[in-house]
Amino acid sequence: MKGLVLSGGKGTRLYPLTFTSAKQLIPVANKPILFRVIEAIRDAGITDIGIVVGDTAEEIKKAVGRGGRWGVKVTYIQQEAPLGLAHAVKISQDFLGDERFVMFLGDNVIQGGISPLIQQFATSDYNAQIVLTRVDHPEQYGVAELDEEGRIVRLVEKPKEPPSDLALVGIYMFDHHIFEAVNAITPSWRGELEITDAIQWLVEHGYRVYPYIHRGWWIDTGRPGDMLEANSLVLEELEPVIEGYVDRDSQVDSRVTVQKGAEIINSVVRGPTIIGEDTRIVNSYVGPFTSIYHHVLIENSEIERSIVLERSVIRDVDRRIQDSLIGRNVCIERSPFRPRAYKFTLGDNSHLGLVVNGG
User: Fold this and answer.
1) Which of 4, 133, 136, 256 suits 49 as a labelling partner, its CA being 20 to 30 A distant?
2) How far apart are CA 26 and CA 325, in angstroms?
């Protein structure tokens, strides 16, 4: 089998962070989401992976390379515009050939990996298998309707009256018949070739399309709140390790990971939390569900349930920063001006001044 990862989207829901960076490379628990997807595919025994890229191709290629660090072979497939998931399959036919494959959206985080799914599909006579999960608000998702034998009979996109609570997760298994489908359908009102239309075509033409019901958590990291939620869930599953330096005046609990080169000085750090390589936490408080990436400085400040990307500085902030997603090379420090506000989604290379108490 082969793997196909879709990493061509613009990530508009994560602006301004994604004005300057691929959304798939934003880290969750200090590891880019795309890296987690590659690892999930590799751990399922698949080592030949195609990555569909768009405008951020060069950044993704620089970060991922040819896949050697994961023991896989990566092939890049250029998509000239975001013309739909089915279009991504269509342009990948030369890479995929007649082999079965798993298609994985490059900005999804799923609990437990996909090894059980791969095993089930590989030993079946299914033409397609679609990962579904039960959700509280199915009207916000693509939803599958199943028959009495458990086969998929209909897919509905964001229905007002959902036929079930089973939402599409963004992980799909196909054999070569999917190419008949993507070549037969026409663009939707959005001007895109929709994968739901291609799957519906398979169903209507008598192909065997079955669900795989995922029982754990799953997050589409398309929005800042989703990214923070995914970060929290992954942090809870990390095996904590202290590789950096913690001085005797600091309090670091047992659920904290301190990566190599990091320093914790006269600070309190409560987990689950991860402190990145060569980051310094000085006279500060870092609360639960926080990921501080590499080469960051946090001094005389407090922060919790947030993500801070590399080479940023947070210094002398007199109120706690919370529920924030802070980009690369950001500087947050005191400012003498009003008004006061402390919830941020800051783009790369930002510089934000904060008011001083009594100022």
Assistant:
1) 133
2) 10
- Domain 2-234 fold is Spore Coat Polysaccharide Biosynthesis Protein SpsA; Chain A (3.90.550)
φ/ψ bin of 276: left (φ > 0), alpha (ψ from -120 to 50), beta (otherwise): beta
Q: Catalogue the long-range contacts made by 303-309 (C-beta closer than 8 Å, 24 or more residues apart).
A: 304/270, 305/228, 305/232, 306/228, 307/26, 307/27, 307/28, 307/227, 307/228, 307/231, 309/26, 309/27, 309/348
CA dist., res. 93 & res. 99, Å (int): 10
Q: Quote the pTM value.
A: 0.85
How many separate helices (H) and strands (E) can be counted in the chain? 8, 31
Residue 338, classified by CB atoms within 10 Å of its CB into exposed (0-12), middle (13-18) or buried (19+), is exposed
pLDDT, tens digit (0-9, with 9 covering 90-100), for 148-163: 888 888 888 888 888 8
Q: d(Cα 274, Cα 250) in Å, to the nearest integer?
A: 15
> Measured on CA atoms in the order 190, 110, 79, 92, is the torsion positive or negative?
negative
Please work out, in degrees rounded to the nearest 5, the angle formed at the alpha carbon of residue 84 by the alpha carbons of 83 and 86.
120
d(CA 180, CA 121): 20
**Per residue in 187-236, pLDDT tens?**
888 888 999 899 999 999 999 999 988 888 887 666 778 889 889 999 99
Instruction: Give the whole-angstrom CA distance, residue 109 versus residue 170.
Output: 10
> What does DSSP assign to residue 30?
T
Q: How do the domains of the chain map onto residue ranges? A: 2-234, 239-355
Q: How far is CA 208 from CA 103, 242, 336, in A?
A: 17, 49, 66
DSSP per position, 83-139: --HHHHHHHTHHHHTTS-EEEEETTEEETT-SHHHHHHHHTS--SEEEEEEE-S-GG
- From the list 169, 12, 187, the residue with the least C-alpha distance to 90 is 187
Can you read off the two tokens belonging to residue 14? 């994560």
CA nearest to 70, candidates 55, 93, 53, 51: 51
Q: Which residues pair with 278 in a beta bridge?
A: none
Looking at the domain covering 239-355, what would its CATH class be? mainly beta
